[in-house]
Design a protein that fits this description.
The chain has three helices and two strands; from the N terminus they run αββαα. It is mainly alpha-helical and about 90 residues long. The chain has one domain. Strands 1-2 form a two-stranded antiparallel ribbon. β1 and β2 form a beta hairpin. It is elongated.
Length: about 90
């Protein structure tokens, strides 16, 4: 069983280089190479944590989208109200 670490690189967002690799790439190389040193039960535990993190991030993303939607709705309503008030001037 392998841990899907490709997702981590896109979410860490670290910049800079170490030995010609970006920090995130170097960190993920260490994580991937080190997996063989970890017991199978710990790998399963880590995979569960990665999966929960992905679920939490998706829930956070949808919460953010809901907030954006709410704000856009208010902006559009305010804009519509502003347009109507201009008609009476």
């Amino acid at each position: 069983m392998g841990v899907d670490t490709g997702f981590v690189i896109s979410t860490w967002g670290f910049y800079g280089t170490v030995g010609g690799l970006s920090f995130a790439e170097e960190a993920m190389k260490i994580v991937k190479d080190g997996l063989e040193l970890i017991s199978e039960s710990k790998k399963v535990e880590l995979e569960g944590k990665w999966e929960q993190l992905r679920v939490d991030e998706i829930e956070h993303y949808f919460t953010k989208l809901e907030l954006i939607r709410e704000q856009m709705k208010l902006v559009l309503e305010a804009n519509d109200a502003g347009d109507r008030s201009d008609e009476f001037v």
